[in-house]
Every structure is written in structure tokens, then in C-alpha cells.
Amino acid sequence: MIPWRRKMLHLTGDTPMQSSIVQPGDPARNFSLKDQKNTTFDLFEQAGKRTLLSFHPLAWTEFCAAQMQSLEENQDEFARLNCVAVGISVDSRQCKMAWAEKIGISRTPLLCDFWPHGTTAQKYGLFREENGFSERANVIVDEKLKIIFVRVYPVHSVPDIREVLKFLKRTA
Length: 172
What we know:
Layout: E1 7-12, E2 15-20, E3 32-34, E4 40-42, E5 50-55, H1 62-73, H2 75-80, E6 83-89, H3 93-103, E7 110-112, H4 119-123, E8 127-128, E9 133-134, E10 136-141, E11 147-153, H5 161-170
């Protein structure tokens, strides 16, 4: 089955509903999540900038660490491209705080989609119900809060950040 065509379950209120993975052209779905520093990140407050939502399954894995470190290493380039890059997973704030310190993340917000469990990943059709975590994916939201890029990667891989940077440069 092609991952971006798979239907994913997400919750709206108390009623489970089917949702497809978001696609370019879709409106972004707002969310507010705490990061590892206990700062609230609200997507709609990023209007006027582009936002990279870099979903990763779980902290404390080598693939997720490498994915988040690639965001950290490219923070200056993201800023030049008018883009805010954030990591998102179902881990708790305390977990993200310890993990960020361990892997050297100080500038990249690591958002906690912890409770209600995976709600943001569900809104974007990226929650793996059978595993209890999100797909590994990059979603770019433009300045007008429209989705312009979606890519789902194998769980046991590290997304190529150059692909994202190239896309951002091409669409600047």
C-alpha cells in the first residue's frame, strides 16, 4: 500500500473519523504544543513565515536523533529562507527536554504531541494507530497557512534535509 494514500484514523471530539494524509493545497490545521523548553508553539502564529513540521516517531532512536540534528544544523539556513523548522513526536516534554540536551538540540523546538496522544499527527493524517506514534514525515506550510510540501519516509530512515532546503529555495 502506498503510504500517502493510506487512510489514517484520527479523533474529532469523541468520534473516530477517517482522514487521509494532508496534501499540497490543503489548508494547514492549527495546533498548539509545548516544546522541550515549555514554550507554546501555535502554528497559526507563524503566519507570514513558512513552517517545516518534521514529524518523527519517537525520541531516543538513532534515526530520530539524526533527523532532529539535521534541523538544528540548518537553523541559520531556515531563517534565511523565512522558515521555522520544528520537530514533532508523541513524547512528553520531560522526555524531549532530556533528549534535546543529550543530542545537542538548543535552537530547534521539539514539540510534544503527547496529550491527547498524537492529536496533531492525527489532524495531519500521519498517526500510526497500530504503533501509537506518527509517521516519519516532513510537511511544509507556507506563509498563508497552506500546505505546499508533504513527504512520508520509511520509519527506519533519515529524511534528506537537502531535499527540503532545495524545495524552500525553489519556492522562495
